[in-house]
Amino acid sequence: MLKKLDEMKVGETGLIKTISGEGRIRRRLFDMGVTPGAEVYLRKVAPLGDPIEVTLRGYELTLRKSEAALISLEVEEDK
């Protein structure tokens, strides 16, 4: 099931499928290792929902909710 990173729940893991956005923001995400095929684990969400912390490529990365909304992931559904 496809989900945006900002819609995921803490503890979910997914594979990055696409990154939306243009220009600087897209380049910044790619420079941080947010690329298609990378596995992302949602570690924490701040009390007000922004920012979020993910584990990506073996390191922790903090993203704004607006940045996370640009990232689509393939997430396994809970059974």
Task: Provide a descriptive summary of the structure in words.
The protein has 79 residues and is α+β, with helices and mostly antiparallel strands. It has one domain: Roll (SH3 type barrels), CATH 2.30.30.90. The chain is 16% helix and 41% strand. The protein has two helices and six strands; from the N terminus they run ββαβββαβ. A six-stranded antiparallel beta sheet has the order 1-6-2-3-4-5. The longest helix is centred in the middle third of the chain and has 9 residues. It starts with a strand and ends with a strand. The relative contact order is 0.34.
Topology:
Blueprint: E1 2-4, E2 13-19, H1 23-31, E3 39-45, E4 52-56, E5 59-63, H2 65-68, E6 71-75
